Amino acid sequence: MTDSLLNFFHSSFDQYGEYGLTLLVFIWTALEGETIVIIAGFYAQKGLIHLYYLIPAAWIGSFIGDQIYFTLGRKYGPRLLARRPKWQAGVNRALALFERYDTLFILSFRFIYGVRNFSSVAMGLSNVAWARFAYLNFIAAGIWATSFSLLGYGLAHIFVRDEADASGLAHWIGISMLMLFVVAIILIVRHNRRRSAQKQEEKLD
């Protein structure tokens, strides 16, 4: 799978250039997972695609893909599960995690192996509002796209450049990931405070 994807990546660059690769990343992330983002990040270090194109393409592609799956789950969830009963176990796991962790799960489901593929459909079956899912999903997609793009970029430096460059890049990646984590926590806290305030107002009414 990885070898064929690498060949496809190279052939796409040869035929369509950087913009073709950007479109490929956008489409692929709307349908699949992080493999293409890591590979693209790796080749960003080689100059085949710029990080300024890669990260937004992966971000928007992933966001749109999960919004589509969420909408399918909301409108056709029971029918989809009736046609694909093998999905039921994964959907149940995703719903159980969502009910327990709520906001945190929406922000992190892309990183959870074995649940990621069913999560958006499962949350479409839940009672979460479309706007709330879209807001948190947009933040989560940005964290995901940046994380795996930088991971691929960092791996390329480690394997291609000298030790000093790899050490410097590792430091830069660590700071970037820490900043993303802090921003995510701040947004979660603010969101939970607003929800608590709304619930208090509803009780008073």
Descriptive report:
With 205 residues, the protein is mainly α. Helix content is 86%, strand content 0%. The protein has one domain. It has 8 helices and no strands. Helix 1 (2-31) packs across helix 2 (35-44), helix 2 crosses helix 7 and helix 7 packs antiparallel against helix 8.
How are the elements arranged and paired?
Blueprint: H1 2-31, H2 35-44, H3 51-83, H4 87-101, H5 103-108, H6 116-125, H7 130-160, H8 163-204
Q: How would you describe this structure in keywords?
A:
205 residues
Q: Measured on Cα atoms, how large is the radius of gyration? A: 19 Å
Shape: globular
Derived from helix and strand composition plus strand pairing, the structural class reads mainly alpha
* Share of β-strand residues: under 5%
Give a short overview:
The protein is an all-alpha fold and 205 residues long.
